[in-house]
Design goal:
This protein is mainly alpha-helical. The protein has nine helices and no strands.
């Protein structure tokens, strides 16, 4: 079962980073608290917004917050036995293998994919990015910013 990023842990890490910069931090911390609100867990959209407002590198923030997150590559081209297999590997993964590789609960992944649920948690965006060999910032920027669709498997 996935353990989502708590608002308390997220706020504490962001506050530490901001205060370490020796900036005037109270106004930005108040703004960030308003964005986070009273949620227990951090959604991907909130994670992205806070990182952008606080001007924190998403990849560095992810590596600090998700260092214990379990994931595996969905596409490991080193396991391909032929060029054909390597070529089609990115298209031949089941939903179960993707949810398992990204560390996401299978039922939640299915509900997100069919539109029953709309929002990914921040750790789920991170897990998907890592499972597909992407930088987390690429997926956060694609889902919540103006980033291009990341190319997987190249």
């Amino acid at each position: 079962m996935t353990r989502h990023l708590s608002s308390i842990a997220f706020k504490a890490t962001v506050e530490k980073i901001i205060r370490n910069r020796n900036e005037e931090s109270e106004a930005i911390l108040e703004l960030i608290s308003g964005i986070i609100g009273d949620r227990s867990f951090i959604m991907g959209k909130v994670f992205n917004a806070v990182a952008n407002i606080a001007e924190i590198d998403i990849d560095l923030l992810c590596s600090e917050l998700f260092e214990d997150y379990k994931w595996e590559l969905v596409i490991d081209l080193s396991k391909a036995k032929t060029k054909l297999q390597a070529f089609i590997m990115i298209y031949a993964n089941s939903n179960n293998s993707i949810s398992t590789a990204s560390g996401m609960e299978k039922s939640r992944f299915s509900r997100l994919q069919n539109g029953e649920l709309q929002e990914l948690y921040a750790d789920e965006v991170y897990g998907l990015a890592k499972a597909f060999g992407l930088k987390p910032s690429q997926l956060f920027n694609y889902f919540y910013g103006d980033g291009e669709r990341p190319v997987v498997g190249l």
